[in-house]
Amino acid sequence: GSIITFSRSSNEDLDKILKELTHKIILPSYLSVPQRKKLFRSRWKHKLEQDPIEIELDDQRIRLRHIDSAGGAVPAARRMLYQAMDNMRTTNDWQKLPGLLEALWFNANRRFLPSDWPKIVRKAGQAGHMGPVFEAMKNPGRTGLKLDSSETVQEVMTAVVWQAASEGWTAGATERAYRNAERVIQFLAEEGHQLQGQAKTTFEKTDRFPLRKDPQVLATPLLLAAAMVVKHGKDGEHMKRLRVYAQIVLEQWPENKGLLELHPHEAYVDPEGMAYLMERNRFLTVAAPILRGFDLAVEALGADEMGQELKSRRNAVSAEVHDALAAVEKGKRGATMYEKCFAEPQVQKTKKAAAAAAETAA
């Protein structure tokens, strides 16, 4: 295939990192096995000084000389990837991410840890650049970015909600977020994002929800559809989708159970399962939008039986959220997410109280 290359970035630090990755990891991955051995073995060092290995790249001939892998000259791909991400400052910089993942994961066959994928998504989300993440998710077989763990899927959903909340839940921002959440649900049904091998067996043995039917996951499109109905009066298509999501959530989420009782017990002690929810700050980041979604869905559904049934789930999650809120410092991601989800109702309450006080005074 054609060699993945990187155009100039917004800053020298990122250019330097990408150049080192290209010359020491990415380009060598395109060589034949005998050529690669020559490149990394010290006995070929002098020969390569005289007669370097040449690769054609963008109409230029690149000369590769000995790389002292035993002496630590080959950088750690994962560490360098994070350094690159830390130096991505512009949209153009972030657009290099899918190519970088493909070059390292697929072409250079570098292996990542299961914990790397949610971390990659989180870093992109916190920088406000989820576009390249969605781009990478279109081709999981080449980028490695698979939606095959709850934590990875949750980080995507968290970023989607955070973006809408940061833009003040405007109709445009909420609709965009809603469409992105629906894209995630579509990805989850695709072949490339399915669990394989041992992970699949463990998942089935411990009776976990398939991710595309996991009520914790579906709570995000439920929140966003409900926000469109309640805040922006969109009661046509959004109301229909809200009812679909509410129905699945009610079928899968047991009555009077909170988020910490939703999954099988084994899942909460599995580092690749739901163990991330055991940390209060992370739990609050996930649970605050779920609670807000239940509130809005109950409001949208009014006297409908479905709305009444959602209340028992809502009350259980509410108790957990308020316990976590008391334990998480202000300014932490979880506390900020709670504020982003509930700040507006607070403003409305204050306005109503002020209006009532003015009326009484009159």
From TrEMBL:
The organism's place on the tree of life at top rank: Eukaryota
Organism of derivation: Cryphonectria parasitica (strain ATCC 38755 / EP155)
Protein name: Uncharacterized protein
